[in-house]
Write a structure and sequence with these properties.
Two copies of one chain form a homodimer. Chain A has ten helices and eleven strands. By secondary structure, chain A is an alpha/beta fold. Chain A starts with a helix and ends with a helix. Chain A binds a DNA duplex through helix 2 and helix 3.
DNA sequence: GTTATCCATCCGTTTTTCGGATATATAAAA
DNA sequence: TTTTATATATCCGAAAAACGGATGGATAAC
């Protein structure tokens, strides 16, 4: 492999321009350079790229194939160069976004579309997990930016920006006995099984109201179990209203529940990691998404 | 874009080997070359690829990304080089195989597997068409090799090798009146509609037996129509026995049909195009597939 | 026949590449 | 602590190449 990128460029440009001379003009080089560049390339490859019997050189069969390969090489090079420029301008080349699985992922779809259009060369990685996962991933640099529900204090290395609030809804199955008491008291709730969210890693579980409760590590599993009549639960409103559960769940009044039923959604990042331009943009864009919430 | 492939190679190799010196040894070059190659590369890109504060250089965040890009460029280059060697050895880089749509394509599947394993860098194109299409495509160099049923004389520019014979079966729907006459005479057949194959391009159609006949350009359409009781037809046995038609068709005796009911399958190529090693191999491999037919 | 292009080749100058030598820093071994 | 081995960066002279201009021969258009 003795050929150079210059030779490939001379080759491709000459094909595109129709002649070596035109190629040389396009490249701003002497014709003799293009001529010998291609001659050397042919010598290296071991066969002729052009049939020179006509007035203008025409690609040989092998030349056609090599043209495709050469273009592929050059376009890879251009990609490298483009990303190098982005990097040297201080823009991020790769970002990992960690999203709490309780965050309605659909609401982020148009955000992801925006990202793909605005930063076409960015390598975006999206990972989902529980609140604990998100915090841990940001802290150990597995992820750069996290979107999560704020339930308990976070590590001191993390910076949290609250971007919206969600109410909890009290839900039961349409067949559940509690549907007879639309405004259940604490005592009434206590008679039935409660399904409580619990972070996967076994951190301190949420406080349960009913003495009879199960822990489940996903709101989506919880609503699934609730819809089958296993018990009642407090889940974020957007999950209660999810299309999957439409018609299967009944929402009851939370008038007699003393606990705070509001959770905050926030964006986290490491304190010691500066925000590059893309991360800044994402920060604002995600805030905008949930502004009305 | 001022960097060279040598610089990328020095970069990638040094990362893989763990140090510039080790990289230089691996590449058989002086250490100073690798050192300055990487320094020049960094100068061109506009940022540092390595953090040199430790004893051994470690990749920066941007360096990690550039490593991926550089590897992509080099692997494209290796592909180009590999195909160039193949080409300079006289092996084909790309072949187009045209297959008559009446040929049971499933019987070629293991052949295609073989090809992909044996010639991993070959660009194979497979196109399907009627017999006329195949012949035309070979002649106008759209395809290099064709597999077809031999029904009528081919152009003098083509070379045909017969590789097998197939009998025609006389088929009707299970509900068709002809099922009452298992050995139908010419006159009996003449009373019912015949479905006759006809090449798409409107060449001379096959001779029809029944005065009442439709022309259809695909054996698969014909068997479909036959199975719905539209008429009777002569189709290659493997098509009559196709799983799609299983149980819907009845085969009748062809004892009273005077016409030749044997079609030959063949491989065609242009007379003036030499067979490269891959084409020769394909030629033999395809022959082997249908040897028992 | 004239003109305009095209390609290959030659040639002298300029630039770059290349490997060795050297200076310096760091980690492990003595 | 000193020694040793191994790093990287830089300098330098020789060798190699890249480079543009000039030239010649061939071809198509005018």
């Amino acid at each position: 492999m003795n050929w150079t990128l210059d030779q490939l460029e001379a080759f491709v440009t000459s094909v595109k321009q129709g002649s070596f001379s035109a190629g040389a003009r396009k490249l701003g080089k002497a014709q003799s350079r293009v001529s010998s560049a291609i001659a050397n390339l042919e010598a290296d490859l071991g066969f002729e790229l052009f049939d020179r019997s006509a007035r203008l050189p025409v690609l040989t069969v092998l030349g056609e194939e090599m043209l495709v390969e050469a273009q592929a090489v050059l376009s890879q090079c251009q990609r490298l160069q483009a990303r190098a420029i982005i990097g040297s301008n201080g823009e991020e080349l790769a970002l990992t976004l960690a999203v709490d699985e309780a965050v309605p992922i659909l609401s982020l779809e148009s955000f992801f579309c925006d990202v793909s259009l605005r930063f076409p060369l960015l390598k975006l990685t999206i990972i989902n997990g529980s609140q604990d996962d998100i915090a841990r991933w940001i802290e150990d640099k597995t992820a750069d930016l996290g979107v999560l529900f704020h339930l308990k204090p976070l590590s001191e290395h993390l910076e949290l920006a609250i971007i919206g609030q969600f109410n909890h809804a009290l839900v039961v199955s349409v067949n559940h006995p509690l549907t007879n008491t639309p405004i259940p008291t604490y005592a009434q709730l206590n008679q039935y099984r409660q399904l409580v969210i619990r972070n996967r890693l076994g951190g301190a579980p949420e406080k349960a109201i009913s003495v009879q409760h199960w822990y489940v590590d996903s709101y989506y599993h919880i609503t699934g179990l609730v819809s089958r009549g296993i018990g009642w639960a407090l889940v974020p409103e957007h999950i209660a209203n999810d299309q999957w559960n439409h018609g299967k769940l009944v929402e009851l009044s939370t008038e007699h529940i003393p606990d705070s039923l509001v959770v905050e959604m926030g964006i986290v990042k490491r304190l010691d990691q500066g925000k590059g331009p893309i991360m800044s943009w994402m920060y604002d864009a995600i805030k905008d998404i949930f502004k009305g919430s």
